Amino acid sequence: MSITSKLKEAVLCLRAGRVTLPYPAQSSPLPARFRGRPVFDAAKCIGCGGCASNCPAREILVYDVCQEIRIIKYLGRRCTYCGRCADVCPEKAITMSHEFENATPAIGDIQQRLELFMSTCQRCGRCFKEPSKLEELKMKGYRFDDLENERWVFRSQAYLDGQPVVDDIEIELD
Amino acid sequence: MVAREKLNLLKDRFGTAIQRADLPAEDRLFVFIDRASVREVCRHVFRQLDARYIISIGADDRPHSGHFLVAHNFAFDRDHLLASFLTQLPADDPKLDSITADVPAANWAEREFRDLVGIEPVGHAYPKRLVLPDGWPEGMHPLRKDVPWNHVPEGFDPDREFKFDEPPEGCTVVPFGPFHPTLDEPAHFRLYLEGEMVRGCEYRGFMVHRGIEKLAESVLTYNDIPMAAERICGICGCVHNVAYAQAVESAAALEIPPRAAYIRTIMLELERLHSHLLWVGLACHIVGFDTLFMQAFRIREPVMWIAEKISGNRKTYALCVIGGVRWDITPELKTELRQVLDKLETEWTAVVAAVSKDRNIQRRTRGVGVADARLVKEAGLVGPVARAAGVPGDARRDHPYAAYDRLDFDVITADGADVWSRVVVRMKEVFESIRIMRQCLDRMEPGPLALDIQDELPVGRMGMSSVEAPRGESHHFIITGENNRPRRWRVRAPTYQNLQGVPAMIKDQQLADMTISLGSIDPCFSCTDRMETVDIRSGAQRIWSQEELLRLVRRR
Q1: Which of B444, B467, B492 is the last residue of a domain?
Q2: Residue B261 sits in a domain of what CATH number?
Q3: Which residue from A5, A35, A84 is facing B357, i.e. has the nearest CB?
Q4: Full domain range(s) for residue B60
Q5: How confident is the model over B494-521, as a mean pLDDT?
Q6: ipTM of the complex
Q7: CATH no. for residue B80?
Q8: N or C: which end of chain B has fewer CB within 10 A?
């Protein structure tokens, strides 16, 4: 009968009571694994650029000012907080923080710019171990993403076939 | 071996038209057929061998083989076999016979490869533009390999309008959407009405086609794509994430560790739970029963919380990488998940007890939006829509993946073929999902979460994967390629087929039932950038262009 159905539905609602949370006046604790904005630790970063190569949204840029200085810039615009950068980071320099209330009128608030001093490898200048075949670092030499316009630039030979490599260094093997 | 049997059947009948075949596994079959007999073979497979049509795929293979490629994918559900019938087309003459006359379900897929790859389905009865925007120049096909991913075509005309068909005589046109209160996402139906009765409609969608496939084929890499695939759908994201990973694994013959298989199963079922609860809520909302809408969402919330605890996000789980999963389910999470399931089961039992006798809902949904078994076959409908028509199709049982072959569950069917039956199917499936997850939690053994892949993935292999999304079978097809990325990746979401059944479902019923009929397939759409206004006093119509709208908005 429909009338009993209506009664049952009424009981359902009454039993539940009020469930609305007092957010944002009061926030509830976040689970430990929560993936918020990634935070980069310049002290731990070795500048391998694995995060930049493996970011699905292409939100991390790498620019080599000279042999010794590498800039890594996190753009924070369309980052989906997937956490792949933190996964592949060999030094655990990236943490997925618990920050998620990131709406801001100034994009600089959530961006990060790391200026790293790079010690030089005697063989090629830039060589780091690849975590696996599927997570190759995809660049052997130097890299020059467009920091002004915040765009990724493909210049590594390992990345695209048929593209000239800019200033790639010949590796001499003995 | 079923694949071998089917191949022999075809060889006996078509002889040399079957050029070569690849049987990489017991449940996969790739057959290369002669261009001249495509239509004949597909008709035979669809009608005589009674296969279910999945999708047609067009690919530009010129850089590798010098040919274009078309694949017509069919499923032999009872034999647990996925089959792909491939044809190579010469680069200077990319044409082949349309199969839509024999396989009506192929209508959209053929129009799609005509738009995107420029392969002409000869003899297609309705070769109208489907995917590309109205202003896109003719003869420019974005999925061809010589088109860069970020190419902006010359001659793009933002003001060019889509030409709708003439409505049948005596009918009034009522535009439904792109923005409509009952649609979560925009889509445009042009309904032809005679009085209150819907006599037909024309659909125009794909307006913000995001080109994820192109991006995957030219910019992203194997392990980037799962995170992009997940964003194909806001509700069944994990499904695409898993289906993509499985397609690659099937192409590269990788077997994932058992623990990863169980975790994938659990996350997929969690997703089904939240999706079905959401859908029951929305369906109630559409028919004006907001009490249950609120309660369904309340009951759903703990599912979102436990997903967040396991994966770090309520909805985008970012679960898979090639060869495994990223998140483990610890003993604490296991206990918590069990508690969530117990509570959900009790609460959902109460809801089902209340709703299943509710006469108001039944009057609003019984006999509405009928899609019978015949329409299911012709239009290739999948998921709860097919099961509500008594067709017991379920990729979890028919084409087992992850850990489903090790689990015990029922495929829920109903025989009303109407919206009410779809409500019943979905409500019961919630209990099956709970059952499946409990079994997974019991049987999960400790072990690695992902394979350690040391070699590059083989190039030029093909893979297929079907995953049962909450709203139907989601099918992914992949050709592996160089540079750590696929050459071709094709996604067929369940709504792609189910939407094609909507015109038949809403025909000859009242306009007021349109919303729930459409809602009953649980659709996913895109949006548009144009608006029509009608001056109520004068009745004059005016179409606003995008530029005028922008000016209007910026004026304040």
Answers
A1: B492
A2: 1.10.645.10
A3: A5
A4: 2-161
A5: 85
A6: 0.85
A7: 3.30.460.80
A8: C
Looking at the structure, do residues B365 and B484 belong to the same domain, yes or no? Answer: yes
Top residue of B313, B325, B363 to mutate, by most chain A CBs within 10 Å, is B313
Looking at residue A131, its pLDDT comes to 63
CB atoms within 10 A of CB B269: 27
* CA-based nearest distance B86→chain A, Å: 28
| B224:A54 CB<8 A | yes
Is position B178 within any domain?
A: no
Is the pLDDT assigned to residue A166 strictly greater than 80? no
User: Shortest CA distance to B149 belongs to which of A58, A74, A64, A149?
Assistant: A58
Claim to verify: residue B127 and residue B228 sit in the same structural domain = no
DSSP E strands, B126-237: 172-176, 188-194, 197-204
Would you say residue B48 lies in a domain? yes
Q: How many CB atoms lie within 10 A of CB A24?
A: 7
Determine the average pLDDT of the residues in B144-151: 88
Domain termination site, one of B128, B161, B194: B161
**pTM value?**
0.90
HSE-up (13 A, CA, CB side) for residue A42? 13
Nearest CB to B358; choose among A5, A16, A134: A5
User: Looking at the structure, do residues B290 and B145 belong to the same domain, yes or no?
Assistant: no
Per the domain annotation, does B501 fall within a domain?
A: no
Contact B259, B444 (CB under 8 A): yes
Q: Which two tokens stand for residue B496?
A: 């792609």
For B348-386, what is each residue's pLDDT tens digit? 999 998 888 888 889 889 999 899 999 999 999 999 999
3-state secondary structure of B204: strand
Which helix or strand (DSSP H or E) is residue A98 part of?
none
Nearest by CB: A2 against B309, B326, B359: B359
User: Does residue B145 sit in the same domain as residue B265?
Assistant: no
B461 and B356 in a single domain? The answer is: yes
Could you report the per-residue pLDDT of B312-334, keeping only the tens digit for each?
999 999 999 999 999 999 999 99
Q: What is the pLDDT of residue A7?
A: 87
Clarify whether residues B379 and B287 are in a common domain. Answer: yes
Contact B298 A31 (CB under 8 A): no
The C-alpha atoms of residue B415 and residue B505 are separated, in whole angstroms, by 16
* Residues forming beta bridges with residue A125, ordered by sequence position: A121
Render pLDDT for B170-228 as a digit per residue (tens, 0 to 9): 888 888 878 777 776 777 888 898 888 888 888 888 876 788 899 899 888 899 999 99
The whole-chain average pLDDT of chain B stands at 89
Q: What percent of chain B has pLDDT over 90?
A: 64
In DSSP notation, B213-235 reads HHHHHHT--TTTHHHHHGGG-SS
Name the residue facing B291 among A13, A19, A34 (closest C-beta). A13
Q: Are residues B121 and B216 in the same domain?
A: no
B323 in a structural domain: yes
B360 → chain A, closest CA residue: A2
Closest-CA residue of chain B to A98? B312
For residue B175, cis peptide bond before it (omega within 30 degrees of 0): no
Task: Judge whether B218 is closer than 8 Å to chain A, CB to CB.
Answer: no
Q: Indicate if B230 and B148 belong to the same structural domain.
A: no
What domain count does chain B have? Answer: 2
| pLDDT above 90 as % of chain A | 32
